[in-house]
Amino acid sequence: MILYPDDVYIYDIDETDFTHNGFPLIDFWEEPEINRKINGRYAFTGEYFKQGQLADLIKHNAVIRAKVPDGSWQKFRISSIEDDQETISFTARFKGLDANRNFIDKLITTGTVSNIMAKVQTSLEFDQPYIYRSNMTTSHQFTVKQNHPIDALIGSNSGGQNLASICSGELDMYDNTFYMKDRIGSDNGFRVDFGINLEYIKETIEESDPPNTLYLVGAVPEGDYDAEREPITLKYLEAPGIKITEENRVIGKYENQDCKTIADLQRWGNEVLIKKEQVHLPKTSHEISVVDLANTIEYEEIADLVKLQLGDTIYGTLQNEDKQVVERVVEYTWYPRLNEYKKLGTGSSVSFYTEKSEGKINTVINKIEQKGDFLQENILNATQLITGNETGNIMQWPKNRPRELRIMDTEDENTAKKVWRWNLGGLGFSNNGVDGPFELAITQDGHIVANFIKVGVLSAIDIEGVNIYGSKIETINDGQYGMLRMQNGTIQFFDKKGKSFGLLTLTNLDKPSILLQHNDGSFFMDADSATLTHSKVINLNAPKVLKNGVEIGSGTPGTGSAGNEGGWNGTYPSVADTQAKKFAWEAWTTLRGLGYSEAAAAGILGNINGEAGPSMNPDTDQIGGPAYGAVQFDGSSSTIVGSPTNDGREYFQRLHKASGVGGDYKTMSVQMAVVNWTMTNGQWIGKINPTTVSGYKAMTDARTAATVFERNFERPASTHPERSNYAQYWYDLFKGVAIEKKDWVNPIRVPYLIWQEWDNIQDDGNKHGGIDITPKNGASSAVYAARAGTVYQVVPNDSVGGNYMVVKHSDGYYTYYGHFASMSAKVGDNVTTDTVLGMSGQTGKASGIHLHFEVWKDGEWQRINPRDVIKF
User: Fold this and answer.
1) Which H/E stretch holds residue 830?
2) Residue 841 forms beta bridges with which residues?
3) Distance (Å, rounded) from C-alpha 788 to C-alpha 744?
4) Strand, coil or helix: 54
């Protein structure tokens, strides 16, 4: 699983305040990129899952926020979108280029570049928050007629020269500032040996001989208007350091109307054309694939490449020619989430590189035509490298938009039998050809499935937390409990000092049960396994935990019972028409389902608005601070679980684990369930009335509820009166809005992949009969009822379905849920679409964590395609 140092964020289409983070975009099909060239393209490109969590925010003109190589966060506005029903491909231009929506009617000026940039700003027809600056002191004449400002600076200036060309400048762009500089970047003596340990370096050399003799043309001398005058000229200025003969002389003509005298031409030719632009030297450019470089040598050796910035100078040696080169970084392609370069473009001349990289359309077409042969050759090479010989074959599938790799025992996919398949779901193996079924061997986050370890002997192996001694098993952990020992049919618990505090035995009651007796008098009895946490036993099957005969907790922590009103089920009312309102609705319905009044729920929403900001995004880290989440849990000074920490995200994950609430901790519904748990587990201090949690849940005034929640739960040094206004806003928006129940919903509510379809043919020749849904992160996730009904069967330890459950619905439908790691409902329970049935797992005949989901119609085991009733 890839860990991203930084996220990419997106804002609501109507957002005008970009001072907050926005919403993190995580469901990318391919790694997004930022591409920038000096005086050219500056754009973000991405390809996003059509079913991604925030796909509805990807709209024309929406704004993206991402980190660029200099460490700053820049914004990009979506300018084009392509939707192929599976993914959404989009391009976003640097947001500062919105300045080009303005217009300059007429500007004719002479002065320093700094003065010209200031004149550009004052000549704009409409007010915009953009700043035009320069540190260049050279003087020039500049004309703009009926053109856009950025086009006049670096683009097509209505047929005339743009300012960058006139002054030999480079336009830097960041935030709302355009800065014309003598050069972007710096010269820190960075070296890289081109051609050494690189799979991919592309070199381009200017075809024609560079001029070694310059013919310079300046301005027309001032005088009588009617007199015909010739411009001043400086003929045949020879470049230094070159022995020029009649045979090797190459003459180049250059014009500059800013040069009024011969001395001006002399200075321009020597200082600018020869010394700076080096027009007398051959022009070269190189393209470095940093990705390929990382695959060939230790990445530490190229780590300094990440420090390079646009415009920086690079020194190097070409291995094959032993030729010294000095070039600048004139283009980059950057992975903003990984903080890594994908590709660097270097050149000895910015203008030459730009011409070559832009290219002619025929060149582009030729490259596209050659791509097929290039890929095919590399696929053959990869096959030999992976298989170690020339047998077998590697195929990318599908061919037009590959998203998985297949390694087959024959070249023809129609005849292949033994097939390895690698995609975002992990590595799977089939003995039955490319159509599967595929058994999962390695999960997408790199976990090896134990069912595939069937040959060989494991020797000298450490299994973390477990020591195996023949028939004796000991597990050791770092928590409160020091050891769990199982030997001769007895399971015994010890504290860190070795003192026994609990005994686990099997008793022969009406069904096999587990009895756990603590030294403190508490015990647990249930038919299924238990999870030991602190001094209590929590079981997802809703067991009773008793101490001295008194029940001290029951039910599934953090969820509402079946009879409660509301509970978010994946649907939104029409009033939730922005992402922020959708987050708020998820919180509102979850809290209502947990017994909070409308006013009490609005009071918490007002505090979310103040803590997480107007985005209402629950997955929010405090900027520069130690807090995390919708209500910004802060464990830096006082905690209710574990020791203090400045990592708010890690602290919230502790709370999430301790609460027993399942699901993805980054979602609003899960976070509100954790908030509900913390209310009665140490966070609520009862400082002002109502001092009890039950009293707060029954409040009738939203404004007062916001203050009470802040004082009793948030515990601030000083209160925030504006949160009462926020609370009233949310109360007015959602009050009385029906919390509708969706008839059929996806039982998995986190980002997921479909591993197998209903009609896949199995080893026995029968259809698969259901859909396998795999959480994208490979971890166990909460499984919800797909439709309201009654739990009909709860079956543990089936050889095929593992722990499975069947829910019966009122109109002849049944739903089947297989391979649970744990189940949290029992036969006879009435369930709704917000009821958690259990946690997905890999019990029974399962080779990876997933849910096997089936729909039956008009009778048991009468399977239909789940896609007939649910849109996955």
Assistant:
1) strand 830-831
2) 850
3) 8
4) coil
The CA distances from residue 704 to 123, 298, 711, 734, 746, in Å, are: 53, 60, 11, 17, 38
CB 325 within 8 A of CB 315: yes
H/E stretch holding 382: helix 361-387
Beta strands in 693-751 (DSSP E): none
pLDDT, position 549: 36
Rounded CA separation 72/51 (Å) = 30
pTM > 0.85: yes or no: no
What tokens were used for 814?
């049944």
Confidence category of residue 745, pLDDT binned at 50, 70, 90: confident
Angle at 695 between CA 690 and CA 699, to 5 degrees: 90
Tokens encoding 294: 């990382």
Task: Give the confidence band of 403 by pLDDT, cuts at 50, 70, 90.
Answer: low
Backbone angles phi, psi at 803, to 5 degrees: -85, 115
Q: How far is CA 411 from CA 398, 419, 433, 436, 777, in A?
A: 16, 11, 12, 17, 32
Helices 702-709/722-734 angle, 10° precision: 130
The span from the CA of 489 to the CA of 507, in Å, is 12
Handedness of CA 567, 777, 404, 57 (dihedral sign): positive
DSSP class per residue in 799-811: TTTEEEEEEE-TT
User: At how many degrees (to 10) do helices 722-734 and 598-611 cross?
Assistant: 130
Q: How confident is the model at residue 443 (pLDDT cuts 50, 70, 90)?
A: confident
Burial of 298 (0-12, 13-18, 19+ CB in 10 A): exposed
User: At CA 110, angle to CA 104 and CA 115, rounded to 5?
Assistant: 75
Per the CB < 8 A criterion, the answer to whether 843 and 819 are in contact is yes
Q: Tell me the residue ranges of DSSP E strands in 685-798.
A: 752-756, 771-775, 782-784, 789-798
645 secondary structure, DSSP code: -
Helix/strand/coil for 705: helix
Nearest to 606 by CA among 677, 733, 705: 705
Pick from 137, 134, 139, 138: which is nearest to 153 by CA?
134
Mean pLDDT is lowest, of 140-154, 246-260, 281-295, 820-834, for 281-295
542-556 CB burial, b ≥16 within 10 A, e <16: bbebbeeeeeeeeeb
Could you give the CA distance from residue 469 to residue 490 in angstroms, rounded to a whole number?
A: 15
Q: How many C-beta atoms lie closer than 10 Å to residue 359's C-beta?
A: 11
Alpha-carbon span 480 to 756, nearest angstrom: 41
List of residues 6+ apart from 450 with CB closer than 8 A: none
Residue 274 per-residue DSSP state? I
Query: What amino acid is encoded at 286 in this protein?
Result: H
Rounded-to-integer distance, Cα 260 and Cα 266, Å: 11
Tell me, what amino acid is at 628? Y
Q: What's the 3-state SS for 579-622?
A: HHHHHHHHHHHHHHHCCCCHHHHHHHHHHHHHHCCCCCCCCCEC
Contact of 343 with 291, CB cutoff 8 Å = yes
According to DSSP, residue 3 is labeled P
- In this structure, what token pair is assigned to residue 725? 């206004």
Report DSSP letters for 512-551, one per residue.
Answer: EEEEEEETTSEEEEESS--EEETTEEE-TT---EEETTEE
Cβ contact 622:613 at 8 Å: no
Apex CA 531: angle with CA 526 and CA 536, to 5°? 85
CA proximity to 682, closest of 737, 634, 638: 638
How far does CA 429 lie from the centroid of its chain? Answer: 28
C-beta of residue 136 within 8 angstroms of C-beta of residue 112: yes
Q: Where are the beta strands (DSSP E) in 135-206?
A: 139-147, 170-174, 177-181, 190-191, 201-205
